[in-house]
Amino acid sequence: MTQTAENRIAPHPFGREISQQQLIETFNQCRQWEDHYRQLILLAKKLPALPENLKQQDTEMSGCENRVWLGYQLLPDGHLHFYGDSEGRIVKGLLAVLLTAVEGKTPEQILATNLLALFHQLGLEQQISGSRLNGVKSLINTVQNAAKSYIKDHPDVAP
């Protein structure tokens, strides 16, 4: 049984209403970096702001230029729900791309996915600054560590 969006902490449309394939099709139409930039800002606008009570120290990423929060919850069906926010529009758009790739997947599915490949496929990896790319890699590491912790700590939820 899949948990409804109402039962999720900080629900968002990424990974459910907005798919990886939709992102790929949209970004493939971008010819210049400004077009990619515009798309990231549009994605950022679709990611609802986190309530202040979810912007806690344990969900705040360290070492990022902009403040970024990334949290997650294990759903009853063994899938993971990720949620987040950022003070920077581009970073928030990059976070939305990552959420699209991981939302609603099992820990095993997340660990089997090359998450950086989506950024490359969208033409973002080669366009963003080195510090932003390092921030994306840090977000990916956080997602992968979350998935690993559920496999290690909760083997009973693995499919």
Automatic annotation (TrEMBL):
Entry coiled-coil feature ranges: none
Residues the record marks as active site: 64 (cysteine persulfide intermediate)
Gene3D superfamilies registered for this protein in UniProt: 3.90.1010.10
Pfam family, one: SufE
Residues in Fe-S metabolism associated domain copies: 24-145
Annotated family: Belongs to the SufE family.
UniProt protein name: Cysteine desulfurase sulfur acceptor subunit CsdE
Organism: Photorhabdus hindustanensis
